[in-house]
Design brief:
Helix content is about 50%, strand content about 10%. The protein is built from 18 helices and 14 strands. The strands form six sheets. A three-stranded antiparallel sheet has the order 3-11-10, with no helix packed on it. Strands 4-8-7 form a three-stranded antiparallel sheet, covered by helices on one side. Strands 1-2 form a two-stranded antiparallel ribbon. α1 crosses α2 and α10 packs antiparallel against α11 (about 325-340).
Length: about 500
């Protein structure tokens, strides 16, 4: 069935899990296992369609940000939906995918179909034209669809795709594409997209799209995975997080590994219809740490802890549902856990997730001092506990995010009309930003080279940071590290 697998892996059945991929030779930690230049189908999500290149997924920076590299996106004159950062990207996209869907998308414009519908439309149109050969089509049909489970409707109703949704999306894909296929065939395609899709993200781990790769879809889940999947310019790479002996299964995490065991199990069952029995779930571990550390369980009953966690999640969900009140709800959630900070670990879910959300909310509002405080907390106190290796991509992303905040602050403090309010907030810390930026640039370059590969998507950014002379500070890292630790303790809880 799988004739085009990379030589380094082979497929075989895994009891209770279907087909999995196994190493055909040993793999070192931080090594590229395999890469997929163009997954079967990939699209920017609706939120980012107007801001992302349809081919390489370059994302326009928010207005007013001091990005070193900016490209002008030009819209496709045919459909008015797809945008491209260069003629090269437009040409490549047109040959492979866009020429088959352009007319259909244009007829629908200004309405934009959901990502799953647009993906199904593209698959149907390309299959009809012969762009997807028989082998590729059979590999798609061999993927899990879980049609019976969807029809049973036994999953948690919140945030899950219901069978009625799949029926509506399949009707839309058929009508908008104009391709005549049996309803059950299109429904199964939509179901396969929902089950097997992977999130396309930026180098900073911001989700901007969705893809389906019939090869990568064969990777089974573990909450303690030995690999991670990453994206660079729309291509998918699977890299090892640890050494993998020959003949061992290659696994990834379908979820954020920082989620608690209870939350991981809930989400896996709700979306993928299975209960994980990996060693982390069996022993109630998150990133190798007990979900209930002895100090926490000795001071708080299970009922009290459950109530606290649920209230934090409720406020976080409200923040997501009502962006206008996001900062207020997230601040209330943070206050809940701050009351118990002597016993409740900073890294424990949902506190870590709420902190990440509130950092993003502060960035969106231009509150750079508060964003810096939360980013420093994650960089100095949380990520080193969860991910012991500095090059782990999850940890490297946090370091890169901190670097970007430092660059924004330096820009705010040195522009002609400098940010006096920010200057006052940070004056007492006397941070030498060029020294910090130099160190973080070197650290990001080193960690991304191993975690993401030498041609990582931020390599060009780092070179530009260095060429612009931001690395010439007058202090040393250890001196600045002491200042940063103080700032992390005082800027935020």
């Amino acid at each position: 069935m799988y004739r085009n697998l990379p030589a380094i892996v082979h497929a075989r059945q895994v009891p209770g899990k279907g087909t999995g991929l196994f190493t055909s030779k040993s793999v070192h930690a931080g090594e590229l296992v395999f890469a997929i230049e163009r997954p079967l189908v990939r699209v920017p999500d609706n939120e980012h369609l107007a801001k992302a290149c349809y081919n390489c997924f370059y994302l326009e920076p928010p207005e007013g940000r001091s990005e070193l590299e900016t490209r002008t996106l030009k819209i496709c004159n045919g459909c008015k939906v797809a945008k491209y950062c260069s003629k090269r990207c437009q040409s490549r996209s047109w040959k492979v995918e866009h020429k088959y869907e352009c007319k259909a998308l244009g007829q629908l414009y200004p309405k934009i179909a959901p990502s799953a519908v647009r993906m199904a439309m593209q698959i149907l149109l390309r299959r009809q034209s012969g762009s997807i050969p028989d082998t590729g089509w059979q590999e798609l049909l061999a993927l899990e669809a879980h049609v019976d489970e969807f029809k049973d409707g036994t999953t948690d109703a919140r945030n899950s795709t219901k069978w009625q949704d799949i029926e509506l999306m399949s009707q839309a894909a058929t009508a908008f594409s104009g391709v005549l296929q049996a309803p059950n065939v299109v429904q199964a395609i939509i179901a396969r997209i929902v089950i097997n899709s992977m999130t396309v993200s930026t180098a900073a781990a911001d989700a901007i799209g969705t893809c389906v790769s019939t090869t990568a879809a064969r990777l089974n889940h573990s909450c303690n995975p030995n690999c991670i999947y990453l994206f660079s310019e729309g291509s998918l790479a699977v890299r090892s997080l640890q050494a993998i002996p020959e003949g061992f299964e290659v696994t990834i995490s379908y979820l954020d590994p920082r989620l608690s065991t209870v939350e991981r199990q809930r989400r896996l069952q709700r979306k993928w219809f299975f209960t994980c029995d990996c060693n982390y779930c069996t022993n109630a571990l998150t990133c190798g740490h007990p979900d209930l550390p002895p100090l926490l369980s000795s001071r708080m009953s299970a009922g009290e802890l459950y109530q606290l966690d649920n209230e934090g999640r409720r406020l976080q969900e409200e923040a997501s549902a009502v962006p206008a009140n996001a900062l207020e709800n997230l601040s209330r959630a943070m206050a809940l856990f701050t009351q118990h900070k002597t016993i409740y670990p900073l890294w424990r879910y949902p506190w870590i997730s709420i902190r990440q959300d509130i950092e993003s909310a502060h960035i969106a509002q231009g509150d750079w001092a508060s964003a810096l405080g939360h980013a420093l907390k994650i960089y100095l106190t949380i990520d080193p506990v969860l991910f012991s290796e500095a090059w782990n991509p999850h940890r490297a992303v946090g370091t890169y995010g901190l670097l970007k905040i430092m660059l924004e602050i330096l820009h705010e403090l040195t522009k002609p009309q400098r940010n006096e309010e920010l200057l006052q907030e940070l004056r007492d810390y006397r941070i030498d930003f060029p020294t910090v930026i130099r160190h973080l640039s070197d650290e990001v370059e080193s960690t991304y080279n191993k975690g993401f590969g030498p041609k990582s998507p931020i390599a060009a950014d780092i070179e530009q940071y260095k060429r612009q002379g931001t690395g010439f500070g007058k202090s040393d890292w250890q001196t600045e590290l002491t200042k940063l630790k103080r700032a992390a303790d005082e800027l935020v809880d």
